[in-house]
């Protein structure tokens, strides 16, 4: 849509900027739960010996979304690279920048806490590297909850959704439904619902996406 219109006017950079961080955090989270023996062992200790319900498609999804979101950000920061006209709203808001840098602080603090734990600490009850991974997922959850807000306010102030495509939001809705369905099926096959309670962020992400407002078009607000 940006390429067809030769402009990013009508949308704000806050959404793709913070979305890139969210998907990067989610990508790291999925990779750790899928490949790291240490993280998988600590997860099993806290979840009745079961393995995480993260699947390889979760990694592909998060990696692809991170890449696409980053490419979208470049259309705002480097419009000349894409042959787009310069538009307002190319700088992230202070609130979004605060969440961005605050996320790095949060991960650093939890990592320092884990590093200070004694070597014989029980990962089941004490702080462990699994908690650092969980912090990554909470960043993704926070991003998902707030990422549409700047665009929503922008649309409301302009009394228009021109420049903002509804397709991405519809895909978010469908993806949320299918994500919840995947978790339910995985947990059913394991005969244990800790697949959901042990991966609460994925479950929450699916629910947030299925409740995202869809009443926007490419024209005037109704």
Q: Can you offer a commentary on this structure?
A:
The chain has 222 residues and is mainly α. Helix content is 68%, strand content 0%. The protein has 11 helices and no strands. The radius of gyration is 19 Å and the shape is globular. It is a multi-pass membrane protein. It is found in: Endomembrane system. It comes from Diatrype stigma. Keywords: Membrane, Repeat, Transmembrane, Transmembrane helix, Transport. Pfam families: PQ-loop.
Features:
222 residues, mainly alpha, transmembrane helix, 0% strand, membrane
What's the layout of helices and strands?
Layout: H1 2-5, H2 14-35, H3 37-46, H4 56-77, H5 79-82, H6 94-115, H7 129-146, H8 149-158, H9 167-190, H10 194-197, H11 200-210
GO molecular function: L-cystine transmembrane transporter activity
Subcellular location: Endomembrane system
Membrane topology: Multi-pass membrane protein
Radius of gyration: 19 Å
**Class from helix and strand fractions:** mainly alpha
**Number of helical elements:** 11
Range of helix content: 55-70%
Overall strand count: 0
Low-confidence stretches: 212-222
Beta fraction: under 5%
Cα-to-Cα separation, first versus last residue: 21 Å
Oligomer: single chain
Shape: globular
Spell the H/E element sequence.
HHHHHHHHHHH
How confident is the prediction overall: mean pLDDT? Answer: 85
Largest β sheet strand count, sense and barrel closure:
none
């Amino acid at each position: 849509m940006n390429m067809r219109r030769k402009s990013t006017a009508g949308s704000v950079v806050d959404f793709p900027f913070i979305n890139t961080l969210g998907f990067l955090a989610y990508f790291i989270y999925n990779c750790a739960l899928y490949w790291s023996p240490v993280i998988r062992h600590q997860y099993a200790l806290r979840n009745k010996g079961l393995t995480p319900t993260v699947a390889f498609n979760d990694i592909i999804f998060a990696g692809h979304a991170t890449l696409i979101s980053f490419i979208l950000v470049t259309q705002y920061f480097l419009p000349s690279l894409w042959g787009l006209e310069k538009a307002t709203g190319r700088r992230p808001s202070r609130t979004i920048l605060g969440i961005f840098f605050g996320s790095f602080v949060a991960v650093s603090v939890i990592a320092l806490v884990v590093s200070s734990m004694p070597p014989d600490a029980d990962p089941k009850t004490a702080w462990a590297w699994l908690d650092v991974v969980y912090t990554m997922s909470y960043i993704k959850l926070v991003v998902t909850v707030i990422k549409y807000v700047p665009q929503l306010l922008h649309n409301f102030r302009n009394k228009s959704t021109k420049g903002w495509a509804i397709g991405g939001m519809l895909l978010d809705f469908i993806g949320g439904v299918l994500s919840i369905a995947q978790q339910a099926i995985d947990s059913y096959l394991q005969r244990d619902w800790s697949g959901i309670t042990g991966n609460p962020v994925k479950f929450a992400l699916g629910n947030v996406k299925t409740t995202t407002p869809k009443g926007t078009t490419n024209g005037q607000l109704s």
